[in-house]
């Protein structure tokens, strides 16, 4: 169920734009469509609450749990006071702090370690697929990508070339997801028995990060690329991935 929410979250912005546009909701039906992610999250929360209650699973908040909860409450309250606008506050909670609730899902639902790793792998595979979609949109359906960006009410972001957005229609958001996904699969290379397919995922997300031309995302990717082998004291993955970064950068420069 948690994975299906990530699928919904990835594709919902595009679905909403196609159905009702980018403007604020003005009719009950538009409000209902806009609230689909929240309604589905409520369903997931109820399902796991019932599951925990039936299984009589007991849990205690540790120091990290309390810190995360305090951080969430503090930021929501301060944000609401500063905004002085209930609609804006709800939107800010939805965009910035709702994902924090997944920390508690992962923390307390009865998942074994292998199941948890499989869930995280699926989530980052989804992000990699979004990167692949970004490449297809950029090089095959470029006009459609431009049209969708305009439908969001934004202009096409450019530096020396148009920036890749995939189905997020924002190069900054897209670049952030790609750089984090790159770091995740790069980290997997330093574990025991890494899979060769991880190099493909790294190549896709590295290419997408460069073509998003998001400076912060590129910096995250490069920092992860350099720091990880230093921490693990393993340089073989570094040597193998370095040509991928160089080639992606050269392709960007050629364009």
Which characteristics define this entry?
255 residues; mainly alpha; 12 helices; 76% helix; 0% strand; globular
In terms of per-residue confidence, which ranges show pLDDT below 50 for 5 or more consecutive residues?
Answer: none
Q: Label the overall shape.
A: globular
- What is the number of helical segments per DSSP (H or I, 4+ residues)? 12
Q: Look at the structure and give the mean pLDDT.
A: 82
Query: How far do the termini sit from each other?
Result: 41 Å
Backbone structural class: mainly alpha
Beta-strand percentage range:
under 5%
Q: Cα-atom Rg, whole angstroms?
A: 20 Å
Return the string of H and E elements: HHHHHHHHHHHH
Helix content: over 70%
Main sheet summary:
none
**What is the strand tally?**
0
Reconstruct the topology from this structure:
Elements: H1 2-20, H2 28-34, H3 36-55, H4 63-83, H5 86-97, H6 101-108, H7 113-139, H8 142-151, H9 171-188, H10 197-212, H11 215-232, H12 236-254
Helix pairs in contact: 1-3, 1-7, 4-5, 7-8, 7-9, 7-10, 9-10, 9-11, 10-12
Explain what this protein looks like in three dimensions.
With 255 residues, the protein is mostly helical. 76% of the residues lie in helices and 0% in strands. The chain contains twelve helices and no strands. It has helices at residues 2-20, 28-34, 36-55, 63-83, 86-97, 101-108, 113-139, 142-151, 171-188, 197-212, 215-232, 236-254. The termini are far apart. The mean pLDDT is 82.
Short description:
The protein is mainly α and 255 residues long.
